[in-house]
Amino acid sequence: MDFFDAVTTQRAMRRLKPDPVPDAAVRQIMDAAICAPSGGNRQGWSFLVIRDAAIRARLGELYREGWGELMKLPYYASAAKEPPDSPASKMLASARHLSEHLGEAPVLILACIAVDPGVTPTVTTGSSIYPAVQNIMLAARALGIGSCLTTIHRYRDAQVKVLLGIPPNVETAALIPLGYPLGTFGRPPRRPLREVAFAERWGQAL
What we know:
The chain has a four-stranded antiparallel β-sheet. The chain is of the alpha+beta class. Helices cover 40% and strands 13% of the residues. The mean pLDDT is 95. The protein starts with a helix and ends in a 10-residue tail after the last helix. It has helices at residues 3-9, 23-33, 53-70, 74-79, 87-101, 130-142, 157-164, 193-196, and strands at 45-50, 107-114, 146-147, 170-179.
């Protein structure tokens, strides 16, 4: 698939079929993940590929609990009051569907990053794991497989770590469901480039 076709039509696909994803496709996706850059080329990442039905179901339960916590935040509480055809309401409906069906996605990938002892993770910690997450989603798109990036599981991070046997010094950075999409791929709604890309100085349009 042409790179620019993949990158401009890879969008959050939260409504997924339960049909299995072939092992060969999962391996191809994960091989793309480990080609991503990381700070100092340390490659401190780990990826849990979860296909066991019972584990997926339990993760789905924990995720639904996290969704309940998320909906208490002002932005999401406000979005819930928007008209049904508004962009915020459509996004929320899609995210709610995922919260109710996460455990039914045939593959769940938990992207993790090791943190040095005594070091508190910061936004820059993500620079060593999120490029790999994007590679996963782009590779999935190229194979016609839907995905999205979510972190709502972190509202129940302690329980997730116990469930999956994750060491204390490892952060769970993203949960990525994979499956064949019920919807169609296409360019996602985005603010125009002139509003977000500046030339030389802040606020000066590119």
